[in-house]
Design a protein that fits this description.
heterotrimer; A alpha+beta (255); B alpha+beta (153); C alpha+beta (765); A: alpha+beta; Uridine Diphospho-n-acetylenolpyruvylglucosamine Reductase, domain 3; Enolase-like, domain 1; 2 domains; 5-stranded antiparallel sheet; 10 helices; 22% strand; B: DNA polymerase, domain 1; 5 helices; 15% strand
C-alpha cells in the first residue's frame, strides 16, 4: 500500500486474501506447526505465546496499528532480509508452503528466499504459510535499530536452543542479501554445550568464539540505516547475549 | 468497485478505484477529514481508525478491504456534543498543540484503555509507539492517558 | 502533572481556545480544505542537485485525462523570483536547477492522481553540471559557483578586545559538526487558492507570516497586495518550515490561469524538498582561561551550509556569530562566521535559528576546558556566567534579566531520577526499546549539563512590530471581547494566551479570536519566540486603550481599539561586529541523564531537567509544552535525526528513514521557570518556544560523554560513535576567511533584488 500511496504502483486489480480463512489459521499437529500467511503479528503475539522468539519478533514490528494488519505472509512475500519474523522462521528451519491452482509445494526457507526482496514465488502462486517442527527449548529474538521503536532492523538475530536435538540454531537478519543461518557458530555450539548438564555454565572462550563465528556469517553493507561494521558488531554482541539468555532459561527450566 | 461499509454507525455505499486507501476513502469520498495524512506510510499513526474493532493505519488498508466491515473514526467518539473522556483528558492535560497527531492519538489511547484500563507506563509507551507527535514531546500525552484512565474507571 | 483550570486569566493553565475541534477532528488544516469544482496541483521537481535544463516537453502531459493546465517558467509574466531576504528563488527554474527538488513545472488536473500522472509524463532533459556539496569546498576559489557572484552569502566578523595577546594560562581547541535537521512538522504544506471576480485571489494558506507571504506572492502574480487576500488555514506545526513560500505561488498561478479553485498538498516525501532545513554546521572554537577558570579569550570560526538559495540564512549566521562564545563574560573575542551557498537543499529557519548548532560547540568546548582545568563543569559556568549588566562580544550590554547563575543552581537542584536496577525490567525499558536487545547488560548512566541562550524577537535593525485590534461589545449575557490579529497560531497556544490577556485586562469571560486574515495589520512572524511578547503586547495595548475609553463612558456601544507593539530598537553590526543587534535575550540550563548500553551503543534518555528564564509565565501548561516539545526536537538532533545527502540528493525523505523521536525515545522532562520580569516587555514576559531546543542537543551530548568517555564532537551521535567503531570527526584546520566588503550579505552589496524581509527592513530605515 505504501507503493500505491506514493503512486509507484498502480495495480489495475487487487486480490483480497484477508478473508481466506485457511490463511488466517494456525495449527499444531504432533509437533508440526503451521502458521497461515494471513496471521497478523498481533494474533501471533496473542495466540502463539509459547513460541517466544516468534512473539518477540512480532512484538518488535512497527506499532499496534501495524501489528493488527501486518502478516507473516507479508514478511515472506516481501522477502526483505530485514523482515522481522524471518530470522525466527530460519532458525526454526521452516518450510514455506505455496500454492497455485495446479499444485501446492513446500520450499525450505533458504530456497524460498533467493535474494534481497526476491523469492521463489511463481506469478501464479500465493503463499499459504510456514511450517516447521516445533522445537522444545528456549529461544530468543532481538533486533537493533537507531531509534527505540518503529525501526527497520539494522541487524536482527534469533538464537534457538534444541536440547533434544543437541543443537543451537542461529539465524541472522538484515546483514546479508537474505536471512542466513550461521552454520559454523551452530556447529561450535553443538559440540561445546554440555547437553547433559544444563547447570554447567558455558566456557567464556566458547561464548566469545560463538559470537565471533556468528558475526563472521554476516555479510552486511553500509546503507542509510547503518554501517556494515556496526552491523557486524551488533551480531557479535547479540549472539553472545542471546546464547547466554537461552542457556540461562534452559538452566532455569524456562522455555 | 462498489463497497458497503458501516462508518461511524451509518451504512455507506461508495464506489472506489482499486488502488485507493481506506484513508483516502474516508477523507475524500466520505468527507471525514478527522483522520490525517502525515506520511502515507504507516509510520506516524495520524490516520488511525478502528476497522472491525481493531486500531489500524487506514493509509495502509486498501479501501476495498473495508467492504462489509465496521469502521469507526475519531468523529465517532464525541456523542451529542459531549467529548469522550479521552478527548477531554487531552484538553485538560495540555496534550494538544498543533493537533495534527491528535485524532490518531485519541483513537489509539481510547483503544488502549478499552483493552487495558490500567496500563503500566511501559504498556502506554508501547501502545503509542506508532503515533508520532512533533510538538508535545509526548509528556502531556502520557498525562492525558492517566487522566483518562481515572475518568473511565 | 498540571491540569487546566477554568477562570482563564494570565498565570493560569487555561484550556486551549482551539482545543475542542482539534480533539474531535473538526479542526480544518490546510490539507483538509476543499471547495466545489476544484483542481489539484502537482509539482515537477529536479532529480539533480546541479544541472542545466536542456529541454522540457509537456505536450504529452497536456493531453492526458483531466489535465487542465501546465505551467513553467515561460508562464512567468511578472516577478519571476521570490525569497525572504533576497528574491533569489525562481518560481520555476529556467535554465538551471541548483538543488535536488527544485520546482521546474506545475500541473493542474481534476484529481490528485491525474495531476501526479501528468507530472510524471512531463519530459525534462537535464545535463548534469558540476556541483558543490561540501561547505568548506564551497569556499575554495576553484569551487563550482552556485550563483554567478560566488558561494559566500554572508560573512560576519566580530572583534572585541585582543585575542592574540590574551593572557591565558590554559587553552582548549575543539572542532564540532552538526548535521542537517528537518522540522518534520506533521501537518503538510498546503494551499487552497480561489480566483476572485475582481481578478484577485483568495488563499487559504499554511504559513508563519501572512503578510510576508502576500508580499512575495503578489509581485509574482502581477497583482497589487490588496488583491491577494490570505486567510490562515489550520497549521499542523511549523518550527521554521512554513516561513518560506512552498505551494502558494504555484497554486495561485494555476488558479488564475484556469479560473478555478486549486488545491495543492505535499506528501511527506515531497515535503522534504518543499521546505528549508536546519543549517549543517562546522565550528572551530578555542577558549583561553586563567588557572582559576576565569575566561580570558574565545576564538570561533563557524561555517554554515545554506544550500542553494538564501532564505533566511544571513540572519541565521548573524545569530550564530553573536552567540558563538556562549552566555559567558569573555573580554577578548574573535568570531568569523560564514554561510555559504552549495547545491544542497536550501536551509533557513528552524527552531533555534543558529543557536543550537553553536551551543553544541561552545558547551562541548567549555566541558573540555573544565576537564583541562580540573574544575567541575558547573563551577566553570558559574564563574563566567553573564548577568544583568554584562557586556557581550558585540559590545551589547545585557539590560534585561540574565539569571544564568540562578538557572544553573535551580537545574542542579532538581532531583536526579532514582537509580534503576539493571535486571528484571520490562524489555522495552532498556536502551533499544522494542528490539528486545537487553536484560540489563553493560548499562552505564551519564549526566551532562548545558547552558544556552538566544535572542527573542528579530534582530539587526529589524522592526518586527505587531498590530492587533480588540473589540468589546455589550450583549444581553454580558460583555464579549473579540480579537483580530494576523498572527499565526500553529500549536504553541498563542490564541489561548491572547484570550487570557483579554480576560485579565477587560474582566470578560468570553473572548473570540476572529479568523486570521491579511485584512488585519501585520503581526510579524510566529517565530523567534516573539509572539507572546509582540502580539501579546499589541493585544494588551488595545485592551488598555479600551479601558481608558471605558473610564470616559459606559459600554453601550462596541468599543474597538487597535494597537501596534514595537520592541526596543536594535542595530546592525559595525565593521568590528559591534552594536546592539538583539532586542532581548532568554537563557536556559538543562541537565540530561542518559543510560547507554555500552556494548551496543544504544541510548535511553532517562530524564531531562530544565531551568528556563521566562520573565513571566502566562500559561504554565503551555510553557511546559514548549519546553517538552523543544527538548524532543533537540534530542532528535542529538541521537537520530539527519537528512542524509549524497551528491546533494536526499536519500532518506521519509519517516521510515528520517527518524524523529517516538514516545519510546523521550524521557520525563522536569521544568522550572525562573520568573524575573523583563521590564521592557508586556507583563515582563520572555518568549519560551525555542530555548529548550537550543540547549538539549548539547545536554544530551554531554551526558553521553560522561557515560562513555568518548569525544562525540558530531551530532547526531551514532551507535558507531558510542562503541568506538567510528572515531571523532576530524578537520585539517579552520575554514579560510573569505574576503568580503563588510557585514552585510553579498547580494545586498551587489544590489540584487531584496526579498520581503529585507524590503521591510529597508522601508523602516
Amino acid at each position: 500500500m505504501v507503493a500505491v500511496n506514493f503512486g509507484r504502483a498502480r495495480p489495475a486489480e487487487l486480490l483480497d486474501l484477508s478473508r481466506v480463512e485457511e490463511l488466517r489459521t494456525w495449527r499444531r499437529d504432533n509437533g508440526r506447526v503451521f502458521v497461515g500467511s494471513g496471521m497478523t503479528f498481533a494474533r501471533i503475539t496473542r495466540e502463539l505465546a509459547s513460541f517466544r522468539p516468534l512473539v518477540e519478533a512480532s512484538r518488535s514490528v512497527g506499532s499496534p496499528q501495524i501489528r493488527n494488519r501486518a502478516t507473516i505472509g507479508g514478511n515472506l512475500g516481501t522477502a526483505s532480509p530485514a523482515g522481522d519474523a524471518l530470522p525466527v522462521l530460519a532458525a526454526y528451519g521452516a518450510d514455506i508452503v505455496v500454492a497455485s491452482q495446479a499444485r501446492e509445494r513446500r520450499l525450505p526457507w533458504n530456497e524460498f528466499f533467493t535474494g534481497p526482496k526476491r523469492c521463489a514465488l511463481e506469478p501464479d502462486e500465493l503463499i499459504v504459510g510456514a511450517e516447521w517442527d516445533a522445537v522444545a527449548g528456549p529461544g530468543s529474538f532481538a533486533k537493533v535499530g537507531t531509534r527505540n521503536a518503529m525501526v527497520i532492523a539494522i541487524a536482527g538475530i534469533c538464537v534457538q536452543l534444541d536440547p533434544h536435538g543437541r543443537s543451537v540454531r542461529v539465524a541472522l537478519g538484515s546483514v546479508a542479501p537474505t536471512v542466513v543461518r550461521a552454520p559454523e557458530a551452530e556447529e561450535l555450539a553443538a559440540g561445546a554445550i554440555a547437553w547433559d548438564e544444563p547447570d554447567r555454565p558455558p566456557a567464556e572462550s566458547f561464548v566469545a568464539e560463538f559470537a565471533r563465528l556468528a558475526a563472521a556469517a554476516a555479510s552486511p553493507i553500509d546503507d542509510v540505516r547503518g554501517t556494515a561494521a556496526y552491523r557486524r558488531h551488533v551480531v557479535e554482541v547479540l549472539a553472545r547475549r542471546e546464547l547466554e539468555w537461552v542457556l540461562d532459561d534452559w538452566r532455569n527450566g524456562a522455555c | 468497485m462498489l463497497i458497503r461499509a458501516t462508518v461511524n454507525g451509518v451504512e455507506r455505499a461508495v464506489d472506489v478505484p482499486p488502488a485507493t486507501s481506506l484513508l483516502t476513502l474516508l477523507r475524500e469520498e466520505l468527507e471525514l477529514t478527522g483522520s490525517k495524512n502525515a506520511c502515507e506510510q504507516g509510520e506516524c499513526g495520524s490516520c488511525s481508525v478502528w476497522l472491525d474493532g481493531e486500531v489500524v493505519c487506514s493509509c495502509l488498508v486498501p479501501a476495498v478491504q473495508a467492504d462489509g466491515a465496521d469502521v469507526r473514526t475519531v468523529e465517532a467518539l464525541a456523542e451529542n456534543g459531549d467529548l469522550h473522556p479521552v478527548q477531554d483528558a487531552f484538553l485538560a492535560a495540555g496534550a494538544v498543540q498543533c493537533g495534527f497527531c491528535t485524532p490518531g492519538l485519541v483513537v489509539a489511547v481510547a483503544d488502549l484503555l478499552a483493552r487495558e484500563p490500567h496500563p503500566s507506563e511501559e504498556t502506554i509507551r508501547e501502545a503509542l509507539a506508532g503515533n508520532l507527535c512533533r510538538c508535545t514531546g509526548y509528556q502531556k500525552i502520557i498525562d492525558a492517558v492517566r487522566l483518562a484512565e481515572g475518568a473511565l474507571a | 502533572m498540571s491540569v487546566t483550570k477554568e477562570r482563564g486569566w494570565i498565570g493560569e493553565s487555561a484550556r486551549r481556545v482551539d482545543g475542542e475541534p482539534k480533539v474531535t477532528g473538526e479542526f480544518a488544516y490546510g490539507s483538509d480544505l476543499g471547495t466545489e469544482n476544484m483542481l489539484w496541483g502537482a509539482t515537477v521537481r529536479s532529480p539533480h542537485a546541479s544541472a542545466r535544463i536542456v529541454s522540457l516537453d509537456a505536450a504529452a502531459a497536456m493531453g492526458m485525462e483531466g489535465v487542465r493546465c501546465i505551467l513553467t517558467y515561460k508562464d512567468l509574466e511578472h516577478a519571476k523570483t521570490f525569497g525572504l531576504e533576497f528574491c533569489d528563488q525562481p518560481v520555476f527554474a529556467e535554465d538551471v536547477v541548483r538543488y535536488f527538488g527544485e520546482p521546474v513545472a506545475v500541473v493542474g488536473a481534476e484529481t490528485p492522481e491525474q495531476a501526479r500522472l501528468a507530472a510524471e509524463a512531463i519530459a525534462v532533459e537535464y545535463e548534469p553540471l558540476p556541483l558543490v556539496t561540501d561547505m568548506e569546498q564551497a569556499l575554495r576559489p576553484d569551487a563550482p559557483r552556485v550563483h554567478p557572484f560566488g558561494n559566500v552569502l554572508r560573512h560576519v566578523h566580530i572583534l572585541h578586545g585582543d585575542v592574540e595577546n590574551a593572557d591565558a594560562d590554559v587553552w582548549v581547541d575543539g572542532y564540532y559538526e552538526t548535521a542537517m535537521q528537518d522540522q518534520a512538522a506533521l501537518g503538510p504544506e498546503a494551499t487552497l487558492a480561489v480566483p476572485a471576480d475582481d481578478g484577485g485571489i483568495d488563499l487559504y494558506a499554511v504559513t508563519q507570516w501572512i503578510h510576508v507571504d502576500r508580499q512575495q506572492i503578489a509581485p509574482c502574480l502581477g497583482l497589487p497586495e490588496e488583491k491577494v487576500r490570505i486567510t490562515l488555514a489550520g497549521v499542523g506545526g511549523a518550527f521554521g518550515s512554513r516561513e518560506d513560500i512552498h505551494t502558494q505561488i504555484h497554486a495561485c498561478m494555476l488558479a488564475l490561469r484556469t479560473g478555478r479553485a486549486v488545491k495543492m498538498v505535499y506528501g511527506r516525501e515531497e515535503s522534504f524538498s518543499g521546505h528549508v532545513h536546519r543549517h549543517p554546521s562546522r565550528t572551530w572554537i578555542r577558549y583561553g582561561a586563567k588557572r582559576d577558570g576565569t575566561l580570558v579569550a574565545c576564538d570561533v570560526r563557524l561555517l554554515f551550509d545554506g544550500g542553494a538559495y538564501a532564505s533566511s540564512s544571513p540572519a541565521v549566521v548573524g545569530n550564530a556569530a553573536t552567540f558563538a562564545c556562549g552566555p559567558y563574560e569573555v573580554p577578548n573575542v574573535h568570531v568569523e562566521g560564514t554561510v555559504v551557498y552549495t547545491n544542497n537543499p536550501p536551509c533557513g529557519a528552524m527552531r533555534g535559528f543558529g543557536a543550537p548548532q553553536i551551543c553544541f560547540a561552545y558547551e562541548a568546548a567549555m566541558d573540555a576546558l573544565a576537564g583541562k582545568l580540573g574544575m567541575d563543569p558547573l563551577d566553570l559556568r558559574l564563574k563566567n556566567a553573564v548577568k544583568r549588566g554584562s557586556t557581550l562580544p558585540t559590545g551589547q550590554v545585557l539590560e534585561g534579566p540574565a539569571p544564568v547563575s540562578e538557572l544553573i543552581e535551580r537545574c542542579r537542584a532538581i532531583p536526579l531520577p532514582d537509580d534503576e536496577p539493571p535486571a528484571g525490567r520490562d524489555p522495552i525499558a532498556y536502551p533499544g526499546g522494542a528490539g528486545n536487545v537487553s536484560r540489563g547488560e553493560a548499562l552505564k548512566r551519564g549526566v551532562g549539563y548545558a547552558v544556552g541562550f538566544k535572542n527573542i524577537m528579530y534582530s539587526e535593525g529589524f522592526d518586527d512590530a505587531s498590530e492587533a485590534t480588540v473589540t468589546l461589545r455589550p450583549t444581553p449575557d454580558g460583555p464579549v471581547a473579540s480579537v483580530r490579529t494576523a498572527a499565526v497560531e500553529y500549536g504553541q497556544g498563542l490564541y489561548t494566551v491572547l484570550a487570557q490577556i483579554v480576560r485579565t485586562e477587560l474582566g470578560v469571560d468570553e473572548v473570540v479570536i476572529e479568523p486570521t486574515t491579511s485584512r488585519n495589520g501585520s503581526a510579524g512572524s510566529t517565530s523567534a519566540s516573539r509572539q507572546t511578547t509582540m502580539t501579546g503586547g499589541a493585544v494588551l495595548g488595545a485592551c488598555r486603550a479600551i479601558r481608558d475609553a471605558l473610564l470616559e463612558r459606559e459600554l453601550a456601544e462596541p468599543i474597538t481599539r487597535t494597537y501596534t507593539h514595537h520592541h526596543a530598537p536594535t542595530t546592525g553590526l559595525d565593521e568590528h561586529g559591534q552594536g546592539s543587534p538583539h532586542a532581548a535575550f532568554a537563557f536556559v540550563v538543562q541537565r540530561a541523564v542518559v543510560e547507554v548500553d555500552q556494548e551496543l551503543g544504544l541510548v535511553r534518555v532517562v530524564q531531562v531537567a530544565t531551568a528556563q528564564d521566562a520573565g513571566r509565565v502566562i500559561n504554565p501548561q503551555l510553557a511546559e509544552g514548549q519546553v517538552e516539545g523543544g527538548t524532543a526536537q533537540g534530542l532528535g538532533l542529538a541521537l537520530t535525526e539527519e537528512i542524509q545527502l549524497q551528491d546533494g540528493v536526499i536519500r532518506n525523505a521519509s519517516f521510515t528513514d528520517y527518524l524523529i523521536p517516538t514516545i519510546l525515545d523521550v524521557a520525563p522532562v522536569v521544568t522550572e521557570f525562573v520568573e524575573e520580569p523583563d521590564n521592557d516587555s508586556p507583563y515582563g514576559v520572555k518568549g519560551v518556544g525555542e530555548l529548550a531546543t537550543v540547549v538539549s542537543t548539547a545536554a544530551v551530548a554531554a551526558a553521553l560523554r560522561a557515560a562513555t568517555g568518548r569525544v562525540l564532537n558530531r551530532v547526531p551521535v551514532h551507535p558507531d560513535d558510542l562503541v568506538g567503531i567510528r572515531s571523532e570527526a576530524t578537520t585539517s584546520g579552520p575554514a579560510p576567511v573569505p574576503d568580503v566588503p563588510g557585514q552585510k550579505s553579498i547580494p545586498e552589496y551587489l544590489g540584487l533584488g531584496l526579498g520581503q524581509q529585507m524590503l521591510m527592513k529597508a522601508s523602516d530605515e
